[in-house]
Amino acid sequence: MKSVKVNQNNLNDYSDIWVIGELNDGKIHPVTVELIGKGKELINNLTGKKLNVIIIGYGVQNSAEKLLHYGVDKVLYVEHNLLKSFNTDYYVKAITDLIEDRKPEIVMMGSTYTMKDIGPRIAARLGTGLISDCTELEIDSSDGKLIQTKVSFGGNLLSSAICPNNRPQMVTVKPGVMNKAERSEEASGKIELVIPKLSENDTRLNLILKEVLEKKQVNLDKAKIVVSGGRGLKEAAGFDLIRELAEVLNGEVGASRVPIEAGWIDSSHQVGQTGVTVKPDLYIACGISGAIQHQAGMYQSKYIVAINKDPNAPIFKICDYGIVGDLYEVIPQLIESIKEKRMF
Questions:
Q1: Which of 2, 113, 155, 302 has the most CB atoms within 10 Å of its CB?
Q2: CA 83, chain centre distance (Å)
Q3: What's the CA angle centered on 279, arms 27 and 177, to 5 degrees?
Q4: CA dihedral for 236, 280, 51, 48, sign (positive or negative)
Q5: In Å, what is the CA distance from 342 to each residue of 240, 266, 336, 338, 339?
Q6: How far apart are CA 51 and CA 133, in angstroms?
């Protein structure tokens, strides 16, 4: 394995931007389309580069063809019977071998469970670095390097980094942060099948059982309305009121970090730097002070409504409408008012 500190002298051999796409049960993960959108933006600031998407699995040609409707130059679909189910070792080897062979300059992945698993391993094998959980990417106009920005130091600072001496420049990007590429009715670009060299000796893992947990799916990243609760609820029972408000608005329930750590609600509801990034039409923050860690996950909402007893809470600095008051008095009145309006 190469050291990540080894300087590479052949940087000119690397070209193009790659998006490592992700499939969930055969469906294209939304973050893949978001990364394509960002890739198209970056490619406009580079000369002679192309935007390619890589997907990996078995029987994925149909998904590969769908990606041609998003304006990419090429889709490479990596297929092998050993890739029918996710296996860290197989995925890492297949993608690493392809990168070593084709030499992309920039490689982007979503900050999902799968990509967080394989991304650092791929970077280590390639002898390059990886910046995780980026919230912004741009091309340095002076030298063409990728500027990678993320929230750091507990959400108190935005830091930017570059990878000057190693290639590819690798990043993972939080889902929901970038704008999705627009879909075209007509397909464009090329498609290529890649068959990796894999054998059962390439893994130390064996899939014995795949069991799907039966629990309500939380679709925070797709919700048009999100109602979130924070420390101000004071107890787990407070989320009953949050759920009721979300229900009358046909929205989803979110939460800040404190209720998650206290065990008041499942972590799948967390909004913020270490949770989900959301961009709904309406975000209602109930009993949430608005620490920068939470703001990082919801500041792009179209409209933000804040309910908090503390008039100096940071959330009031970014909200569109603020209500200073006890949420246990304000929310029931909101629910009643919404119900009354829907009766007429």
A1: 155
A2: 23
A3: 70
A4: negative
A5: 21, 31, 10, 6, 5
A6: 21
Give the tokens for residue 26: 């055969």
The token duo for 110 is 């979503």
Domains of the chain: residue spans and CATH: 11-202 (3.40.50.620), 220-342 (3.40.50.1220)
Distance CA 289, CA 296 (A): 13
Dump pLDDT digits (tens) for 170-212.
999 988 888 888 898 888 889 999 999 998 888 888 878 777 7
Using alpha carbons, select from 106, 87, 232 the residue that is nearest to residue 172.
106
Among the ranges given (35-39, 184-188, 251-255), the one the predictor scored with the smallest mean pLDDT: 184-188
- Grouping H, G, I as helix, E, B as strand and the rest as coil, residue 269 is helix
DSSP helix/strand/coil, 50: coil
* Contact indicator for 37, 180 with CB cutoff of 8 Å: yes
Strand, coil or helix: 321? strand
Q: Are 57 and 89 in contact (CB under 8 A)?
A: no
Structure tokens at 163: 């990878």
The token duo for 5 is 């500190």
Cα dist from 317 to 88, 153, 191, 267, 314, whole Å:
44, 21, 48, 26, 5
Q: Distance between CA 23 and CA 67 in Å, rounded? A: 11
Tokens for 275?
């949770």
Q: Please answer whether residues 303 and 320 qualify as being in contact, where contact means their C-beta atoms are separated by less than 8 angstroms.
A: yes
**Packing angle between helix 88-102 and helix 113-126, nearest 10 degrees?**
50
Calculate the CA 196 to chain-centre distance: 27
CA 225/CA 243 separation, integer angstroms: 12
SS3 of 316, please?
helix
